[in-house]
């Protein structure tokens, strides 16, 4: 399809501003703020604008259109009810500078959501400020750093992270000023306790874990890991990306975790992708409450809700205002509509779907770790190399059958990894269709490998030259006039 700039024709307008009915401003705009070149907006009719963007939207793939099994990203369906709640005038038209007396409903929602998330995680206090999971990680690590400083543990400058961890874990720890130490996984895909004991020392500030981990396996030794950390005056940090597997079944706080971040845009069914919107609340045990970003929402004895800035040792703000509010509304709506038993059922179905897919696909594919998984599992595409193709070729071919590829080449400890997370929202019929497609593409890999190498064949955009795209990054359209060709 053509770019909107390529549809431009001089003199066409989509919208005309009414005639100016107030005096023109005499304020002098500083010279350095005035554009030196023409804006070069495309000149099109309103119909062309509307059709263009509808056509663009039709090219997008989403969980509303089909199976979207991104492992560790939890692309679960977002009920329309959540969107309707977030679209209510009283929520979407709020201004962050309104007086607290005028936003009591919103504050009550945030207060109750804080309590819900604290209960679900088994923690004591929480901040809703962080705008994403990795943002929550950084917030949690800054809280840990300030706590250690205040308790004369300044020498503790190391954070232990598993080799299977999300890449944001070591990145967040490093951004907070810590040295990252990698602990190995054992043959079961869990933290190697022997290696962990060798690494923990007087310099250990924290251990960062995802549980279940990125291989979809529950760390059954979590209580011992917690004991190892706390015996060495280190804290245990929980990456909540995979909470969707254990809601209502196991609480991080009960397993010895001191700091927890949540991904509301995953577990609690608010849409995400393309960098946002997101929400990464951070929950802590009571002795860390004094370090939470301020403000948090509290309630006075008279029942009025307010922003509480009385957090003496706070690490300060981590985001403007109070978090991504409409994402909070969606998460709140989801929790209320599901209820305690509903959240537990969601985890049960997510685990059931993942194990069903794993067992069925294990007849044709190699499973990285064969033990019972939770919400996701990892296939090894190593055998594909025997036919002259690889994991990338395989998943590109899936697109021709209308299936979004899973996460690939992660975790890094699995060769030719395909990480599949079906979530609880998919039916058995959908899963059976996926199994058939995977087996069909595997048959093609064996008998017609060129079909995979040239895939996808039916998508609007064919396979990109990724190396060229990285080396010659172009993120905006430059027309002839800007190039000086006219």
Automatic annotation (TrEMBL):
Reactions this protein catalyses: N(6)-[(R)-lipoyl]-L-lysyl-[glycine-cleavage complex H protein] + glycine + H(+) = N(6)-[(R)-S(8)-aminomethyldihydrolipoyl]-L-lysyl-[glycine-cleavage complex H protein] + CO2
Q: What InterPro entries does its record include? A: GcvPB, GDC-P_C, GDC-P_N, GDC_P, PyrdxlP-dep_Trfase, PyrdxlP-dep_Trfase_major, PyrdxlP-dep_Trfase_small
Species this protein is from: Defluviitoga tunisiensis
N6-(pyridoxal phosphate)lysine: which positions carry it? Answer: 266
The answer to whether UniProt assigns keyword Oxidoreductase to this entry is yes
Q: Which cofactor does it need?
A: pyridoxal 5'-phosphate
Q: How does it assemble?
A: The glycine cleavage system is composed of four proteins: P, T, L and H. In this organism, the P 'protein' is a heterodimer of two subunits.
In Swiss-Prot or TrEMBL terms, this protein is called: Probable glycine dehydrogenase (decarboxylating) subunit 2
Signal peptide boundaries: none
| Residue ranges constituting the Glycine dehydrogenase C-terminal domain according to the UniProt record | 346-445
GO BP term, pick one:
glycine decarboxylation via glycine cleavage system
Name the family the entry cites: Belongs to the GcvP family. C-terminal subunit subfamily.
């Amino acid at each position: 399809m053509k770019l909107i700039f390529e549809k431009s024709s001089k003199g066409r307008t989509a919208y005309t501003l009414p005639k100016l009915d107030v005096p023109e401003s005499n304020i002098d705009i500083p010279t350095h703020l005035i554009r030196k070149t023409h804006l070069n907006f495309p000149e099109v009719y309103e119909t062309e604008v509307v059709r263009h963007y509808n056509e663009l939207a039709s090219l997008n793939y989403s969980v509303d259109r089909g199976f979207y099994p991104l492992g560790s990203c939890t692309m679960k369906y977002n009920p329309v009810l959540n969107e309707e709640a977030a679209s209510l005038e009283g929520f979407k038209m709020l201004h962050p500078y309104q007086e607290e007396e005028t936003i009591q409903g919103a504050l009550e929602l945030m207060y109750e959501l804080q309590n819900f998330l604290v209960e679900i995680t088994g923690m004591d206090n929480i901040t809703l400020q962080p705008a994403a999971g990795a943002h929550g990680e950084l917030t949690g690590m800054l809280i840990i750093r300030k706590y250690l400083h205040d308790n004369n543990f300044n020498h503790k400058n190391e954070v232990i992270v598993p080799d299977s961890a999300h890449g944001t874990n070591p990145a967040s720890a490093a951004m907070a000023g810590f040295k990252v130490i990698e602990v190995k996984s054992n043959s079961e895909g869990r933290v190697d306790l022997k290696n962990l004991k060798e690494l923990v020392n007087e310099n250990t500030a924290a251990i960062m874990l995802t549980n279940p981990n990125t291989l979809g396996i529950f760390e059954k030794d979590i209580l011992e890991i917690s004991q190892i950390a706390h015996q060495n005056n280190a804290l245990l940090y929980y990456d909540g990306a995979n909470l969707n597997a254990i809601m209502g079944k196991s609480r991080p706080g009960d397993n010895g975790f001191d700091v927890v971040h949540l991904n509301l845009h995953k577990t609690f069914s608010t849409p995400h992708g393309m960098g946002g919107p997101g929400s990464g609340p951070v929950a802590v045990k009571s002795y860390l409450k004094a370090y939470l970003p301020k403000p948090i929402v509290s309630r006075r004895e008279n029942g009025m809700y307010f922003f509480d800035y009385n957090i003496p040792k706070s690490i300060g703000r981590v985001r403007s205002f109070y978090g991504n509010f409409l994402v909070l509304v969606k998460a709140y709506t989801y929790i209320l509509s599901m209820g305690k038993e509903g959240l537990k059922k969601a985890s049960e179905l997510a685990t059931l779907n993942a194990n069903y897919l794993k067992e069925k696909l294990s007849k044709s594919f190699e499973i990285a770790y064969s033990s019972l998984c939770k919400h996701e599992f990892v296939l090894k595409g190593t055998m594909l190399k025997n036919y002259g193709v690889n994991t990338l070729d395989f998943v590109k071919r899936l697109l021709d059958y209308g299936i979004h590829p899973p996460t690939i080449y992660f975790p890094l400890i699995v060769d030719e990894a395909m990480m599949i997370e079906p979530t609880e929202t998919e039916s058995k019929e959908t899963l059976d269709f996926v199994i058939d497609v995977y087996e069909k593409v595997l048959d093609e890999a064996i008998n017609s490998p060129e079909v995979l190498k040239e895939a996808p064949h039916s998508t609007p955009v064919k396979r990109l030259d990724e190396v060229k795209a990285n080396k010659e990054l172009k993120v905006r359209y430059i027309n002839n006039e800007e190039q000086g060709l006219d």
